[in-house]
Amino acid sequence: MATDDRVARRSRLWADARLMRETIQAGGMVTHVASLSNLSDAFRGTDRALRCIDGRTPGGVRLAGSGILLGLDKAKAFAGAAHADRVTYHQDCGAARLWAAQNRMAEADPTQYARYFAEKLAEGLGVPCEEAPLAGPVGFHDEIAIYYDGTGLADPSRVSGLPKGFVITRPPFGADPADALAEVRLAVEIALGDDGFADLFTRESPLRLIPIGNPLEERFSLQGLTAELQTLALPEGNRVVIDGFTAPLR
């Protein structure tokens, strides 16, 4: 149950994102991104740090809790495929909190678990480990979108006209989308829960699942990624919608 303070903060942050939500809702993502002259900036990043899908830890290649829910072997495979050159962890990590709950560990501050896993993964990869500072509110998720990135390059935070969102980096998961879709489900759960905007997401102001198609690789095309997302069991009432675009890559 959300506290009075959290309800007040939720209402304030929701109001702050009103113009962005209404603009996108009016014409959809394809129309919206067509109006952004600097859209390509979101795909020019050179950051290859392994970061969480959290919208408050922008940049890099993205994996929930840097892979804590997948385990070391799968996280190592993902990091290798993504050419990750660092591993990060962060405070207030929903994936680490879920891992703690699943493993019946103390949940008061899951940062210790996030850090321990990140350090073990970095050691296995032979790369540095560091803490990623939060670029957003502590104790609350203000994402209004979930990006399902088929380019492996997307950093929406580089373009002010893109909605704040979780980011799932799709290509390093390979041919089987199961683990990538599990990351999407986790992001939906957080966004619709007490730590996110919860029931403020409605048919009129839905949470957006935004597949970002890769025009240079057919298996990660907008059509292909949309088809993957359509296999998810989404909440009733159109509170979550799939609405993507193709990245401006050359």
Walk me through this protein's architecture.
The chain is α/β, with parallel strands linked by helices. It has one domain (4-246). 34% of the residues lie in helices and 14% in strands. It contains seven helices and nine strands, in the order ααββαβααβββαβαββ. It has helices at residues 4-16, 18-34, 72-81, 94-102, 111-125, 178-191, 222-229; strands at 49-51, 61-62, 86-89, 129-131, 145-149, 165-169, 207-213, 240-242, 245-246. The strands form two sheets. Strands 5, 6, 7, 8 and 9 form a five-stranded parallel β-sheet that branches. Strands 2-1-3-4 form a four-stranded parallel β-sheet, covered by helices on one side. Strand 7 (207-213), helix 7 (222-229) and strand 8 form a beta-alpha-beta unit. The radius of gyration is 17 Å and the shape is globular. It starts with a helix and ends with a strand. The model has no long low-confidence stretch (mean pLDDT 96).
Runs in which pLDDT lies below 50 for 5 or more consecutive residues are none
- Please state the overall shape, judged from the principal axes of the Cα atoms: globular
Number of domains: 1
Mean pLDDT: 96
Instruction: Give the SSE order as H and E letters.
Output: HHEEHEHHEEEHEHEE
The major sheet is characterized as:
5 strands, parallel
End-to-end separation in angstroms reads 47 Å
Class by SSE composition: alpha/beta
Percent helix range: 25-40%
Radius of gyration based on Cα positions: 17 Å
Beta strand count: 9
Strand content: 5-15%
Number of helices: 7
